[in-house]
Specification:
- The protein is mainly β.
- The protein is built from 2 helices and 41 strands.
- It is globular.
């Protein structure tokens, strides 16, 4: 008989099969106070909320429903930190906001969902500080159920693995089905020296598992590549690094993976699960007959166009330059084809071999699809923005990347990686793309029919850290989000989180939130969180952008909290 482990949901009891015994749940934080709007802040939101990484399926990074936070307000002395909300560990998953959630037994609340690397999920009232509406915890040391410790990862390639500081539990941004009141996420556990990754589907109102949830993630497919056995490659739950945000699309939940510190043998994977039954429907690998080709995109989720095509970018790995199934170091256009994904089109840079030798992943940022056009773009570790016609990505040209719309060196410094996915905004003042690479200034580029050129840049660049690396640099640069009231130019604010002055590569360091007038980032900075000690938020959440909605800025941190900024009461 299978014994069942009981995990906590504040106010409710749930169970998960497969563990050896039960133990006392973590202490409850109690009931939350009713929603409030102190200091004249906006009350319950009337908009759509923030239900995915990047705000929309095109991953533009823009919230166009913001009527309260204007450049004038943010620049005033009345703007600052309202409070911080404690959680139990670091926040790699983006904070999501859903208006009017019917919380079981507590009425309707605008709700912020926070997921930690300790495999914990919190639902908080979005409008006021207080204890959680509910919590769910998937860690129980007494039962031998813990997040995967980093000491178990990348022992061959990295020795001591530090890209993630300690726990590897929930790492990616979930996908939400608001109409179906369901959250989809992946949790990673070590259970009595065995490793598991599971897809969960839970109720937004109380954290209870949906029927059939969770499901253990397993996959095999034909292939002769790295680690293959008898012509098959298999998903590895220990090596598989599940960093990209989840994609909910046409009734399927898509999940993508890379590896930790390129520990092999590994492959890039995309698996698709039926959103209702959680049965596996799609299995695809980026390098079935080769190796590597990880999909990580600094945490960004795959993008989707109006025709249902899926776009993602792979990192270092095998690439069939004349065409074939191995698509490392490539910008990809995919579509479901039965139980797999068909490669409709692709691009691999002309200097593929140099990128491979120098660990210059093409897929360091996610893909962005420009609304109202046929243009796609993405940034790389080479400090380049690539601009594509989605009808013809260009494949491979050994003589140069002249077959695509544009390849622009944004930074001019070869070591300045672009990790934060570029942000796009169309306002009455024109169309702009924003990017902030390592050791570089925030750049605003004009966009005109598929061509980009520098328009403006900030006075301050991301920090220069003269640390152990030759010449120094500061990873990951700026992680961006933009808020505005539609296309009204006077309402646009560009938000960036960066480190204060240290490199966050394999380190946890202090962070800062910065705000700029989005019409011209070359103007004086509107505000930053280090001008007044009261506004500091603690340590920087690597690759994780602020979530801006309903007159508030929610900043994730590695200081076991998120902090909320708006007009002070």
């Amino acid at each position: 008989m299978t014994k069942r482990a009981v995990f906590q949901v504040v106010g409710f009891t749930v169970a998960l099969a497969g563990c050896s015994k039960s133990s006392a749940p973590p202490a409850s934080t109690g009931d939350a106070a009713p929603a409030a709007s102190p200091g004249g802040l906006p009350g319950p939101a009337k908009g759509t909320g923030v239900t995915m990484r990047g705000y929309n399926l095109r991953r533009t990074g823009t919230n166009l429903e913001e009527t309260f936070l204007t450049p004038a307000l943010v620049a005033s002395p009345s703007f600052g930190k309202l409070y911080c909300q404690p959680v139990d560990d670091e926040l790699y998953a983006s904070l999501l906001y859903v208006p009017g959630v019917d919380i079981k037994g507590k009425g309707k609340h605008d709700t912020v969902y926070a997921l930690t690397v300790n495999n914990s999920i919190y639902a908080f009232d979005a409008l006021a500080q207080g204890s959680s509406l509910w919590e769910r915890h998937y860690t129980d040391e007494a039962m031998g159920v813990v997040p995967v410790p980093t000491s178990d990862l990348a022992r061959t390639t990295c020795g001591t693995y530090k890209d993630i500081s300690h726990n590897v539990g929930i790492m990616s941004t979930p996908a939400l089905d608001v109409a179906g009141k369901t959250m989809y996420f992946v949790a990673r556990t070590k259970e009595n020296n065995a490793y598991f990754q599971r897809l969960h589907a839970i109720d937004l109102g109380d954290g209870s598992e949906r029927p059939g949830s969770p499901v253990e993630i397993k996959a095999t497919m034909p292939g002769t590549g790295a680690g293959s056995v008898d012509g098959m490659i298999a998903f590895d739950p220990l090596r598989g690094n599940q960093r990209p945000g989840l994609l909910l699309h046409q009734g399927l939940v898509y999940i993508a993976w890379s590896s930790h510190c390129d520990e092999g043998p590994y492959h890039g994977w995309v698996l698709g699960y039926d959103a209702k039954s959680l049965t596996q429907q799609v299995v695809w690998s980026s390098t079935p007959n080769g190796g590597n080709g990880g999909i990580w995109m600094s945490g960004q989720a795959p993008a989707v166009d109006d025709d249902g095509n899926i776009y993602l970018i792979t990192g270092n790995g095998s690439a069939d330059l004349m065409g074939g199934p191995n698509r490392g170091e490539s910008f990809l256009k995919l579509k479901r084809d039965g139980n797999t994904l068909a490669i409709l089109d692709w691009f691999t840079p002309y200097n593929y071999l140099a990128l491979e030798r120098g660990d210059r992943d093409l897929g360091a940022s996610g893909a962005v699809l420009i609304p109202g056009s046929n243009v796609a773009m993405g940034g790389s570790k080479e400090g380049k923005l690539y601009v594509f016609d989605r009808g013809n990505l260009g494949k491979f040209n050994a003589a140069g990347d002249t077959q695509i719309m544009q390849s622009i060196s944004v930074t001019g410094i070869n070591r300045s990686h672009i990790h934060g996915t570029p942000v796009y905004w169309k306002s009455g003042a024109g169309e702009s793309v924003y990017v902030m690479a390592e050791e570089d200034y925030l750049k605003q580029l004009t966009f005109n029919g598929g061509h980009m050129e520098l328009r403006s840049m900030s006075a301050l660049r991301t920090p220069f850290d003269p640390g152990p690396k030759p010449g120094g640099y500061t990873m990951p640069g700026g992680v961006l989000a933009l808020s505005a009231d539609g296309d009204k130019a006077a309402t646009g604010v560009l938000w960036a989180t960066t480190t204060v002055n240290k490199d966050s590569n394999q380190a946890v360091v202090p962070g800062i939130l910065r705000a700029y007038d989005a019409t011209d980032v070359g103007k004086d900075e509107l505000w930053n969180s280090e001008r007044n000690p009261r506004d500091s938020f603690g340590t920087f959440a690597k690759f994780n952008p602020p979530t801006v909605y309903n007159g508030r800025v929610y900043v994730p941190t590695f200081s076991k909290q998120y902090c909320v900024y708006s007009r002070l009461p």
